[in-house]
Amino acid sequence: MSRMKLAMNVVKDLRSLADSIEALATDEQHVTDVEEVREPATKITFEDLRAVLAVLTRDGKQKEVKKLIIKYGAKKLSDVPEDKYQELLDEARKI
After folding, report:
1. What's the domain of life for this entry (predicted)?
2. Rounded-to-integer distance, Cα 69 and Cα 80, Å
3. At residue 28, does pLDDT exceed 80?
């Protein structure tokens, strides 16, 4: 394949991914269902944590979310240590 064709395939895939993410973000019920089904013994991923915090942010809880992130010694979510994800998630669910 030529580089141009490969680049076009990447663009197509990225657009498809963006559409999927947008659909998930607008379906708040889906996020709630996933949280209820998920077993507490599973390891919390960055994406899981980000999804929960995104719902809180959309609900107008930006300041509370930012305070939680800062509480764990980070300026942004990606700076939070992975071993603190579960604790942060537990506190976020209390908001």
Report:
1. Bacteria
2. 7
3. no
Residue 58 confidence (pLDDT): 92
Tokens of 65: 């979310």
By the 8 A CB rule, do 72 and 81 touch?
yes
The predicted model scores a pTM of 0.55
Residue 49: closest CA among 26, 27, 22, 68: 68
State how far the Cα of 89 lies from the Cα of 41, in Å rounded to an integer. 13
Structure tokens at 10: 């990447």
**Vertex 22, ends 16 and 26: CA angle to 5°?**
150
Range 54-82 average pLDDT: 93
68 contacts: CB under 8 Å, gap ≥ 6: 53, 88, 91, 92, 95
Residue that the structure tokens 């300041």 belong to:
63
